[in-house]
Amino acid sequence: MVTLVAVAGAVRGWDCVCNPIECEPLEPSGCPGLGIIVWDPCRCCKVCARTVGEDCGDFRGTCEPGLKCYEGSCAPIT
Fold it and tell me: Which part of the chain is the IGFBP N-terminal domain (predicted)?
């Protein structure tokens, strides 16, 4: 029972709170790597896609094209 409560609490901590007014303007030139802009995990704001070596997955972000999220880090597709 204790485990169930702990897991349920952890899941609640990942809820999205979206306020598009708080999203910062973003241009591709302001992004590293290929300069790709994607939606954040909540689909609220636009953010830079992650590039080689950056954290990815879940709420950490999406890798840019040509990369995959491998063990929590963006790596080239081989």
Answer: 12-78
CA distances for 31 relative to 8, 27, 35, 49, angstroms:
35, 7, 5, 8
Rounded Cα distance, 16 and 53, in Å: 25
Instruction: Tell whether pTM > 0.70.
Output: yes
pLDDT tens digits along 1-59 = 444 433 333 444 568 889 999 999 999 999 999 999 999 989 999 999 999 999 999 88
Instruction: Give residue limits of the domains in the chain.
Output: 19-76
Q: String of b and e for 49-77 (b: at least 16 CB within 10 Å)?
A: bbbeebebbeeebbbbeebebeeebbeee
Q: Which CATH class is domain 19-76?
A: few secondary structures
Phi then psi dihedrals of residue 44, to 5 deg:
-110, -50
